[in-house]
Amino acid sequence: MGVYLVSLILIGVAGRFARKENSLSDFYLSGRGMGLFVLFLTLYATQYSGNTLIGMAGKGYRQGYAFLVSVIFMMSVIGAYLIYAPKLHHRSKKHGYITVGDYVQHRFGSPVLTVFITIVCIVAVGSYILTNLKAIGYIVEVSTGGRVTFVQGIIALSLVMVIYETLGGMRSVAWTDAIQGILLIAGCIFIFCGIEYQYGGISTVAETLVISRPDLWHSPDIEQKRLWLSTIIIIMFGISIYPQAIQRIYAAKDAKTLRRSFQIMIFMPIVTTFFLVMVGIVGLARFPGLDKQGSEEITLLLLNDMSVHIPGVKYFIILFLSAAVAAIMSTVDSALLAISSLFTQDIYKRIRPGASQSNLTGTGKIFSWVLMACMAYFAVNLPQTIWRLTEIKLEILCQVAPAIFLGLHIKSLHGRSILLGLSIGICITLFIMFSNSIGLSIEPKPWGVHAGVWGLAANFSTVGITSIYKRMPVKC
Amino acid sequence: MTKLRVCLISAILIIASVPWFFTEFMAGNILGFPIWAFYSLCVTILYAIVTACFFQRYWSLFADDEE
Hints:
The structure holds two protein chains of two kinds.
Chain A: H1 2-17, H2 24-29, H3 36-47, H4 50-63, H5 70-95, H6 100-108, H7 111-143, H8 150-199, H9 201-212, H10 222-239, H11 243-251, H12 255-265, H13 268-286, H14 292-296, H15 298-309, H16 314-351, H17 357-380, H18 384-391, H19 393-397, H20 401-409, H21 415-434, H22 451-469
Chain B: H1 3-16, E1 29-30, E2 33-34, H2 35-63
Antiparallel strand pairs in B: 1-2
Helix pairs in contact in B: 1-2
């Protein structure tokens, strides 16, 4: 682990020396020259977080075959890129966008809308950092047998991430992502193959489960199916517009590189999500009756069980823990860089329009340190109000989707329609989610559909209705 | 093909991946999966193949920019 962390900092130093100029474009977008290998791996490592390795096997254990639907959750995100990435990449090259705010400002010419969307993105991505830091603390504590505590783990790894991020910016983040992505892919494939070999394959597991858990053979009921579709919508419109993903669309060397990365990415849920859900299902057959906490550790449990019979499996355990830490670090560093760029380019630059490129880059680096310190503090001492916020990040973030998906393809769309739709969408989402807190008896997921989907439906409808009936002036 | 048609085909495949028409207990399995789960996986893989082809064939259609 120590060698791995030192190598990450060395990559940060290498990224610093590879710098071509002291500009925001070079720091945040790696000079817009990312090739296929690094782009694919950084997209992959960023999309799959620590939740993938820990949470998906756990959910596979608890929900059984029904959780195989998560494979299409992740694929739908890549499908969504087809709608907006080609045009956004083209425009980013043409107009030199650095953040999602740059696109919004250029397309709609509305500072209010730009700042509003920037704040929504910062809040959503910030909460993403928070949950991942918390997960990293637990993994470090478990993997070191308590020798490194939860708090020490968070502080040490936060420090490593912020060091290599401020040294080399996107360049070092993407290079470390490449290593982390390879670890993650190798971890998923080896663990799946090892467990399948040891426990007799999918058919053998099915023979056990059809007797012990016949309920798993029931098709999900209609409410669960609606919830599936609702989750696909939230994930598709939420994850695909993560600011860190949009940064990578801008950073791609050319359209062909970006297109090929997505063509590979669309199949990655099969070797990642599918494999891990199957690990959870194998665990269910082997170790039935675990509670939620126990099921979250099912992969480790299986690997430990295997290591009794096959001594070499202890290396799988090291690989699994390394892959889990790598998955979280690659997600956090990308999110940190995205927030830093959003603050610098879309907020600080507005306050100080005359600031030089080196001044802006320096401010971004200072902001990264301050932000990471705050996030580490909150991850250790998480107030309930902030924790609640982390649960609704995607439901809030997906409200930005009309600005990107519709804004790129409908010329006549006006910023006021988007702003109104965004406001209504967020209000409806928050109202549904927090109605119980103010004494109203509204379900958190009315009719089995997420609050964010109701908000998004109202958002798209508002944009459509105001665009058609008010006949606002054409602006592009 | 128009952009709208590409989006519609993608949306139909995503909606079809949910096993809407499987409502009862079915004891049989295909390759170790319950029949409804096997159906859902097949549509999911079909979605991946179709989307990869769409990226290849219709990238320029979606990139076409007349600002």
